[in-house]
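Thread: assembly with ligand

MN 10:42: here's the input set. Chains plus the small molecule as SMILES. Want everything predicted jointly, not piecewise.
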Amino acid sequence: MSLATHYLGLSLKNPLIASAAPANAQLDHLRRLEDAGAAAVVLPSLFQEQIEADTELEELILGRMAHNSPEASSYLPVAIGPYGVGSEAYLDLIRRAHQALSIPVIASLNGATEAGWTEYARLMEQAGADAIELNIYFVPTDLALTGQQVEDRYAGIVASARRGVAVPLSVKLSPFVSALGNLAQRLHDNGANGLVLFNRLIQPDYDLASMRLTQGVHLSTPAEMPLPLLWTSLLAGRTKLSLAGSTGVHSGDDIVKYLLAGADAVMTASAILRYGPSYMTRMLDELRIWLEVRAFHSVADMRGLLSWARSRHRERYGRPSYIKMLETGPVA
Ligand SMILES: Cc1cc2nc3c(=O)[nH]c(=O)nc-3n(C[C@H](O)[C@H](O)[C@H](O)COP(=O)(O)O)c2cc1C
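BT 11:07: finished. Tokens for the full assembly:
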């Protein structure tokens, strides 16, 4: 039985990757993930804002030093992110993780505009990152922005991160773009090697007692899987990009669903946060059992079997099926 797969050109022993989360900044946690069977780990994000704050601070200190001010040395970087102080600490985390683990270490660079922060991709590569995940988290609140402009922004960020790095680049995308298939092709043409489907947008709620906005990161549930599953299925086999199914993976069955849709790899964060790293072993055992029971000898044998490209019932993705479903009424 082979669980082996390829993601972003990396050979993985199985399809399950520990998605970006704060605990992945701790070496002992990363080791526990590896021991539990993780095929690769994604480090928590280094944010554009953090890089820009560091750069501003550096310029300030250098400016003061130029004026020979003794207080210059008293300025210290502000800690943003779980891995310590400053973006240099992030590069150090990559170095330490790379040395400590034998599985691929994927660094995460998180931002929204095409600017100097993407140059950090090069420093991440130099620090030993096996690949870089670009998390482009952008909510187009400006009503004047067109869909084309938003997609140009994504494409520009990828092109600028690609300049000067040889390691694979993946893009963690929002599902809320107007033409995802076309955007995927553009991202590939601009140097991306894969997509993570999807980023979860922070969606606010209202507290009716205080009449205030409430915000917070909630752990996912498998109920969030259908949207990324749909797009994994629609893109699989039709793009040269590797695909990582992400969001809602809490069991071996959830891994199976993304693989059947055509994902090359599957990511999980909430399940690890909820149950701990050893839960990965259980999910992988469940995957193995599912394959054994159906006499599949490898993940490769079943990957993409339910993708759109291999479907004999593509009409099920279209309007006739939609109308029929509405007429039939809700599923019990
Ligand atoms: C507490 C928490 C922190 C996270 N931090 C990051 C991060 O730094 N960078 C990132 O790209 N995603 C981050 N994520 C998103 C996860 O990597 C993942 O994409 C998302 O939770 C959906 O996967 P899941 O359903 O397996 O949780 C975070 C998620 C949680 C719950």
